[in-house]
Amino acid sequence: MSILSERPAVAELPITALGPGFGAEIHGIDLARLDDDQVLAVREALVAYKVLFVRGQHGLDDTAQIEFGRRLGEVTVGHPVHDSGDVPPEVYSLDSQDNGFADVWHTDVTFVRRPPAISVLRAVVLPPNGGDTNWADSQLAYESLSPGLRAYVDTLTAVHDGSREFGYYLAQRRQGKGNLWEGEVFTELTPVEHPVVRVHPESGRKGLFVNPGFTSHIVGVSEYESRGILDILYAHLTKPEHVVRNRWQPGDVALWDNRSTAHYANRDYGDRHRVMHRITLRGDTPVGPATASR
Q1: 108 is catalytic
Q2: Would residue 278 show up in a list of annotated catalytic residues for this protein?
Q3: Does the CA dihedral 56-58-64-66 come out positive or negative?
């Protein structure tokens, strides 16, 4: 049974849905002081709504953010490649003064074999305006494709490559030595293959699992076919009716299911300062429709 049809724990949270089935705000809670049932409810709400916004978390610092993440799941290091700098190793700091932008549609860290399941992002420094973040619902996007195209993309595999974004950083700033991820130190960004359509391990729903940030090409077709297929999927994924947008306020925290969303941070604030701190929770190996049906 889908979690969307059985929400006993979710109903205990003061939730306002932002759309028919995507995005929600949780009101009146302190992420640092949740009981076990509330933590479970947040986890279930993430699967159901895919992205959650919690306002007014002014007392949350890096330590409390990490501790909250540990109650939701297994916290990874902040990033396979990036140095954590002056923040804890579990935190990935996106600082606009150090090229910390995310202005391309992407799903976090899909260039590894087990991409993160959940991301938790906290606003640390915000510009006076601008810097909104957008999330796309990959399951709704898949379900609104034509039946013939759904059947075709169910069969496809794509390559994900982090070298375009992080290869130079790993080679030059880290001298070829990244962080400990999945028990191994990252020394190179070897491309990996994932199904184009991912079956969610908890809800069983299918969603598109390709993104412009890290997907390089479709396996087994020509370069031109690959480009055409991906352009169609990207355009469909990011249609306005599949997207929810957050205008950040001080104290905001966003949580999203990395297995069923993509996101994009607007870079429209010029040289004004923006800092966001992200943690990620360990995920599993993406499974496509053919494997899931066995």
Answers
A1: yes
A2: yes
A3: positive
